[in-house]
UniProtKB/TrEMBL annotation:
Domain (AAA) ranges: 4-180
Name recorded for this polypeptide: Sporulation initiation inhibitor protein Soj
Domain of life: Bacteria
InterPro entries for the chain: AAA_dom (IPR025669), DNA_Partitioning_ATPase (IPR050678), P-loop_NTPase (IPR027417)
Pfam families hit by this protein: AAA_31 (PF13614)
Annotated gene: soj_2
Region annotated Disordered, chain positions: 256-276
Cross-referenced PANTHER family: P-LOOP CONTAINING NUCLEOSIDE TRIPHOSPHATE HYDROLASE, PARA FAMILY PROTEIN CT_582
Length: 276
């Protein structure tokens, strides 16, 4: 099996993206998949959420500039089968430094290509920053597929339409393999009609692209990062841990070796707006 690069991306913050990056990666590792998580968010929440310090020079930043071999930045997390390239606040400077380069949208691709080609990892998970900047676009330029975490709110559809348009643009501009492999509904509250209605609306537009697994609002999920652990280590029997284990299982089950990305057209911003 060749290494698959999966970007967890949404231009909107507060959707459970980093929570998903930590726990989805940990659950894939639990299923004996070799995983590398690359924290591309200068806030470094995925880094601290796995118990690592935010150390100067530890992020992918010097590799983006061509000053460091990316493989030297890989750290063990203490979780079997899960490694990480941490982030740090200085990674925010990459937006300016890389912008001066001619190949500024290919810097991440050049940096991690040797790691991908080594086939050491089954999956490389990219925790993207919550903004449409250069790091975000670099991630989509190297990714094979995108998982979009989406909170159960009415305003979610508009943001989702923007993400679909961006993925289409990146694919047409030079990354033809890029596709949306799944939309993950997060912060689901089983006791409210609102959550159920939002899920139904997203499924109406995007069909089986929406994961059947729903990530609930769960206190244990919120607490786990402060202890530097994925929820499967912090409280392995809570509903949050069960949800992310189900997500990993569903993700693996969905995969078909050598399958071509679906050519089915997804809704655009304009088509979603017209349907409202």
């Amino acid at each position: 099996m060749k290494t698959t690069v999966v970007a967890l991306a949404n231009q909107k913050g507060g959707v459970g993206k980093t929570t998903t990056a930590i726990n989805f990666s940990a659950c894939l590792a639990e299923k004996r998949k070799k995983v590398l998580l690359i924290d591309l968010d200068p806030q470094a929440n995925a880094t601290s959420g796995l118990g690592l310090e935010k150390g100067f020079g530890a992020s992918v930043f010097p590799a983006l500039l061509g000053e460091t071999d990316c493989s030297t930045l890989i750290k063990e997390t203490g979780i079997k089968n899960l490694d990480i390239i941490p982030s740090e606040l200085d990674l925010a400077g990459a937006e300016i430094a890389i912008a001066r380069m001619d190949d500024y949208l290919q810097r991440l691709k050049l940096a991690i290509a040797p790691v991908i080609e080594s086939d050491v990892y089954d999956y490389i998970i990219l925790d993207c920053p919550p903004s449409l900047g250069i790091l975000f676009m670099n991630a989509l330029n190297i990714a094979d597929e995108v998982i979009i975490p989406l909170q159960c709110e009415y305003l979610a559809l508009e943001g989702l339409g923007v993400m679909v348009d961006i993925v289409n643009q990146i694919r047409d501009a030079g990354n033809p393999k890029l596709h949306i492999s799944g939309i993950l509904m997060t912060m689901y509250n089983v006791s409210t009609n609102l959550s159920q209605q939002v899920v139904q609306e997203v499924v109406k537009h995007f069909g089986d692209r929406v994961f059947e697994t729903l990530i609930p609002r769960n206190v244990r999920l919120s607490e786990a990062p402060s202890y530097g652990k994925p929820v499967t280590d912090y409280d392995p029997h809570c509903v949050g841990a069960a949800a992310y284990r189900n997500l990993a299982k569903e993700f693996i089950k969905r995969r078909k070796p050598d399958a071509e990305p679906s050519a089915e057209a997804l809704p655009t911003v304009s088509s979603i707006t017209a349907a409202e």
